[in-house]
Amino acid sequence: MAEDHLPQVLVLRPPKCFTAYETQFSEKFHFLKAWESPLPTTDFLATHAASVEAILCNSFTPITADILHHLPSLKLIVTTSVGHDHINLPECRRRGISIADAGHVFSEDCADLAVGLLIDVLRKISAADRFVRAGLWPISGDYPLGSKLGGKRVGIVGLGSIGLGVAKRLEAFGCIISYNSRKEKANLPYRFYSNACELGANSDALVICCALNDETHHMINKEVMKALGKEGVIVNVGRGAIIDEKELVQCLVEGEIGGAGLDVFENEPDLPEELFTLDNVVLSPHLAVATPESLSGLFHLMMGNLEAYFSNKPLLSPLLDE
């Protein structure tokens, strides 16, 4: 089939999944690559306004009301992310624009990294590695002991597919699981707390797995950190702005909490420099969901969603408002 006759899909900036599988994607769709055009974005959109029905994007590409205004024929947004905070959802609802996301493709890999970050902070793995590489072991002697994971009370913020994966993994280590979520989940053995502060007060560690929205922005604030306490650990694989980052840095520097394992940050890729000097902090560059296996699964899901839309079939992973 000639490219001109393939269904058109707009890409403002190339998601990692698109870059890795562009050849396979392009066998089925004609991609309008805004980032390669010499035209300003608004002019590029105006050129294709009448024909674009679908967008492929990632969490780093804001789909604003202005973008949507320039695309009157748009019917579908396919995002390679689980979160939707980069998309103007009210405007999409008003326009009747469907959204397909990454579904559960990332859940296992993200849960794995969350547990890995928690173990790393508690057992001081990264810090001990730096200690050995710096040649300090023969000079300074034994490195300070880490803390046992088994028996820890772990509070999970957001018990969706990722949070549930974290819970099941930590159960195997002998951890005591409780959680906070939008509502209590039926038929689960974990204790539910209706607010994050109460959860923190009854936990040794908090693992943040929820989505970012108006309700969860800065949900983990100074009050929650104080409730967690001086030995408490925070792990975040959700979104950076769920935690009040300034307060987190202050609590870490002043010893108000015990440590943090962070895969996401408020102003990526810019991080507070204070974090770089803290041995009780483990940093990861927003890679919780990124493995070759998850990218392969994501490609097939994104391709399937686009094929479903252009074939008038149900989307494979639609965003469903609760």
Give the neighbour order of strands across the main sheet: 8-7-6-9-10-11-12
| Alpha-carbon distance between the two ends | 40 Å
Number of strands: 12
The stretches of 5 or more residues where confidence is low (pLDDT under 50) are: none
- Report on the biggest sheet: 7 strands, parallel
How much strand content do the residues show? 5-15%
In round numbers, the mean pLDDT is 95
* SSE string: EHHEHEHEHEHHHEHEEHEHEHEEH
Helical content band: 25-40%
Radius of gyration: 22 Å
Question: Helical region count?
Answer: 13
Secondary-structure class: alpha/beta
What overall geometry do the principal axes of the alpha carbons give?
A: elongated
- The oligomerization state is single chain
Characterization of the model:
- By secondary structure, the chain is of the alpha/beta class.
- It has helices at 16-20, 22-26, 41-48, 65-69, 89-95, 107-123, 125-133, 137-140, 161-172, 196-201, 222-228, 245-253, 292-310, and strands at residues 8-11, 30-33, 54-57, 76-79, 98-100, 153-157, 176-180, 191-192, 205-208, 233-236, 259-262, 281-283.
- The strands form 3 sheets. A 7-stranded parallel beta sheet has the order 8-7-6-9-10-11-12. A 3-stranded parallel beta sheet has the order 3-4-5, covered by helices on one side. Strands 1-2 form a two-stranded parallel ribbon.
- Strand 9, helix 11 and strand 10 form a beta-alpha-beta unit.
- Helix 6 (107-123) crosses helix 9.
- The protein is elongated and about 70 Å long.
- The protein starts with 7 loop residues before the first strand and ends in a 12-residue tail after the last helix.
- 39% of the residues are buried.
- The model has no long low-confidence stretch (mean pLDDT 95).
